[in-house]
Every structure is written in C-alpha cells, then in structure tokens.
C-alpha cells in the first residue's frame, strides 16, 4: 500500500464520525417523517376472469388464450382515464387521487385480478376498491375472445373489497432505513469532499513568505 493510499484511508477514518452523524440524522428524519405522516389503509379485492359459453354458463377452458391475450390488456386498461373517471364519478373522489390510490395486478399464468386501494381512512379505501372492481367488470364485459363458440368475458368476485382493521403504513422501519441510506450517502460524499480539499491543501505545501524584509539601517561613517 502506497503512502497516498494510507493517507486517504487514515483521513476517511478520521471523518467517520461525520459520516455516522449523517446516517443517524437520516434515520431520525425518516422515523419522524413516518410518525408525522397520516395513517394509510389498504383495501384489497380479487376477481376471476372467465369466458361466457353460448348456453349462458361460464368456462375457463380458454384459460391460455385469456392469459396470453386478455389479462395484460385488462391490467393496462385498469388505470386508463375512462376507468379512473368512472371510479371517480362513483365515489365522488378526485380522479387524480383515485389514480394514486389504485393498483391492479395479475399473477403470471393466472386468471385472477387483484385490486388494491389505499386511502387515509379504511372506509374510503374499501369504497375505491369496490368501485374499481365494478368498473373493471363493465370493461371486461365489453371484451371478447373467439375460440370455438365462447365469446364474451365476465369478471366474478372471489374476495370482496376488504375493510382494513389497521393501517398498512407508513412503516417507521422502512422510512428510517431509507433516511439512513440517504444520510449515509450524503455523509460519505461530504467526507470525500473534505478529504480531497484537505489533501489538495497539503500537496500545495505552506504558502511562501512574501513579506518584505525590514530595511537594514545605514551604518554611520
């Protein structure tokens, strides 16, 4: 190890308290932010997509076709302007708020749609989730596939929108961890900057003395 590398490591070790202080402050800030933030409730619902047969029954015999062609479309359209506008009209909640609240997913190789909605109250979260499922049901009924005599699609409830009994967030541990990571990153950047400035000053050496020496008094003859 060269002398320069040893000096850098030694300099960083001396600045470790500064880095640690930033980390601790970041954790504290994250926990305080989570504490001051209002509670968040999450309501979930799930429904099954199936094909309607010609005799009025329901079938999942075309599961592969639905999974490959329809499910991605449903997930994509679930947060479209038309669906969100319908949910906003049903619930009386602003469309932009509905967009932030709703998440729709579908597991790989599955006919099940999962809807989750977050809000500052359990009742509001449940209302949004219910309205989203209803809007999806209407949208799915307008889709179709054409294997054999199966055409129309339907959405059947599996689990109705739940009424959350406790907040799902914000998580103090998660926000504290994020704050710690951000604080540690800032502390490390500041430490490197200070170390670089200090080493740059050392490389230049002491400033030359430019003061004019005092004049020597003349010796009388």
Question: What's the structural blueprint in terms of helices and strands?
Answer:
Blueprint: H1 3-14, H2 16-36, E1 41-52, E2 58-59, H3 63-77, H4 81-91, H5 95-101, E3 102-106, E4 112-119, H6 122-141, E5 153-159, H7 172-204
Antiparallel strand pairs: 1-2, 1-4, 1-5, 3-4
Protein name: Capsular polysaccharide biosynthesis protein
Transmembrane segments: 12-36, 175-195
Keywords: Membrane, Transmembrane, Transmembrane helix
Going by helix content, strand content and strand pairing, the class is alpha+beta
> How does CATH name the architecture of the largest domain?
2-Layer Sandwich
From the N-terminal CA to the C-terminal CA, the straight-line distance is: 65 Å
- Count the E strands: 5
The radius of gyration is 32 Å
Largest sheet: 5 strands, antiparallel
- How many domains in all? 2
Name the quaternary structure: single chain
Helix % is 40-55%
Shape: elongated
What would CATH call the homologous superfamily of the largest domain? FepE-like
Mean pLDDT rating:
81
**What sequence of helices (H) and strands (E) makes up the elements?**
HHEEHHHEEHEH
Number of helices in the DSSP assignment? 7
Protein name: Capsular polysaccharide biosynthesis protein
Region (Disordered): 201-221
Transmembrane segments: 12-36, 175-195
Keywords: Membrane, Transmembrane, Transmembrane helix
